[in-house]
Protein 1
Amino acid sequence: MKKVYFPNLDGLRFYAFLAVFFAHSFWTEFDYMRLNPAFHFLKEVAYKGVLGVNFFFVLSGFLITYLLLEEKAATGKVNIPAFYMRRILRIWPLYYFVVFVGFVVVPFVQSRLGQPTPERGNILYYLAFLGNFDVKPTSAVLGILWSIAVEEQFYLVWPVVFSIVPPRYYRFLFPVIIAISIPTQQMSYPASGSLLYASPFVCMADLATGGWCAYGVFSSEKVRTFLLNLSRQAIVSIYVIGIAYFFAMYRLSELTPVFGTFGRLFLSMFFGFIILEQNYSVNSFYKVSNFKTVSVLGLYTYSLYMLHFMCIYVVNKVLAVLHFNTQFYQVLVVQTVISFVASIIIAWLSFNYLEKFFLSLKHRFNARNSPTAKVSVLS
């Protein structure tokens, strides 16, 4: 089976990570800084970057669905055990390293510094990829793992669905899942939990939207032709509307029930458009694959995503000891730049000295169980 590779996805991954990175940056414990109107505004704008996680969900839904569709078309079935093994080799090594750091290393270091802090998170949830059902953990490095749990729950179910559902019914899967997910987004959950944002039933709408995009371009020549011939003016117009909505989403949700009910779906649709436009349109005003540095960094996105919170935390603590976190420029610029550079270095080390070995084993579990069939290392 031929290799599946979308050249613009690496860059898109990195930009999504960058949004999440800025959302988690600008840490300060000083009230005079937090209450400053300018600082508060910048922090509020940057925090919208958490929606980069939604983009990751849409992108995962797109790529995994496309791979499953191609496998089913090429072999007539989905090799579920092989799929699971590829996911395990990609996700588990670094995931469990972060779990170890969060539950063992961080408490040990804090106790040595005379700052013991009880961990609220339940380690059993994290070992079983159920962290999205746990209360918000104490350790910052564990806070990122809820989204990985959602992804793993998606990986557990999705190949089974495509294995047992006849292909003629695939087109109904995505709107049905989205229709089921939207009401769950309106439910009231306990304030102590994170279910409202992290429930797989809520996040599945993002994943299904990405999957629907994949199904559209995989199964319909009309869809591919439409995207291919989409005018630059239309593309730019959709980007302007989508970006404006990105920044106004929460305010619009408060103003009208339509955006309150379908706001997340609208955002997912915009993210799906970005993925499709970047990979299928010839009139794009810019392809992210042309930015080679960003595309290269995109190879380390999983490592960056998993480890950046750890780097931000460590840099914040070191600068606090040095008393170099008391000025605005120190928090907004120095702390952020050092954290970003540290994240890239640590991610590179993680990819090359931890993840790469396991990734090299993935070819043993390709769709046809043949060493000649290849799948993208990031798939």
Protein 2
Amino acid sequence: MKFVCLLLPFALFALFGDVVVAQDAGSDRAKNTVILDKIAVQNLGLVTELVEERDFETTVFAIGRVEEIPSQRSVVSSRIAGRVVGLEVHVGDTVKAGQVVARVETRQPGDPPPTIELTALQDGLVVDSHVRLGDPVEPEKDLLDVADRSRLWAVAKIPEPSAVGIGLGTKARLRIPALGSETIEATLERFAVDADREAGTVEGIFVLDNTEGKIQPGMRVEFSLITASRSNVLSVPRIAVQGSPTGRVVFVADFDLPNAYVRAPVVLGEQNEESVEVISGLFPGDEVVTTGSYALSFAGGGSGISLKEALDAAHGHEHAEDGSELSEADKGGKGKSAGEHDHETDLDHGNGLGGTLVMAWAILATLAALVMTQLWWKRR
């Protein structure tokens, strides 16, 4: 008897389960599909990217600043006292080593008093001036600062807990916001001699080529230090992922409907500054929306076309309101007046109320026969 009772829920699920699952699948597709027209796609600026397996890097994020290399800065000064009677360069000028940059009238007697020429010690940029014409000059006074900025330091402030595993030779991608989205590949060449106690960071130093002169000291730098790499990892750009932390979703271009995008739940893994690993929910070859995915989260059916109408036009035949295929019974009953049913068709194909009742009666009768047989066997 207990065995029969255990079988009863499974029998009822076999009877009704397929219908429920089919209805849920259809309603989910209709609810999760956003259908737009070409104008709406252009207004949202939608961009898609193909999902594929690629190398995935584990990174540590840090921020920092551009600084001059101390050894590449020099000053112009005078060995004798006097006053400035000539300035040949100004802040922002480029000079060559040996070029005359100032003239100083000495205090030695003469008419006029003798003058000396001061020259630059290195090639570089005049970055600071401490005198004007007529200013007195003393040997301990700096007149001009010249810096060679063809190479600069990018100093990363690495959080101490994240510094584990980061050593000399670590590769990194650097982005300077003032220069746009361009990334710079660099290698960690040295550490600062002291850690920053207040900030809790260790300073890592990268050398940047600046022959074009676009980088300036003081610019903010964003660092992605690469600590590990894995191959054949399914990942998508981070901007493609939307939703709450407990319900991450991406929008996937529908495989056969133009300008249609399906909201697909995903399970995510590790992430870096650019990409996020996808554990489940996507397959290689899917097209996910990257640029515009956030706006798509709030977009309704901008085209005014329902899922049924779009599928009808794409496939050349009619579909149910939820987008599912019509059954033979639905197709056969099309055109009948409201309230009419084809009971013979329902019974023949096991669809409709008549077919359901027949199947239910057969299952219940079978279960009753099993119960009677079991009771008779116990008595005997």
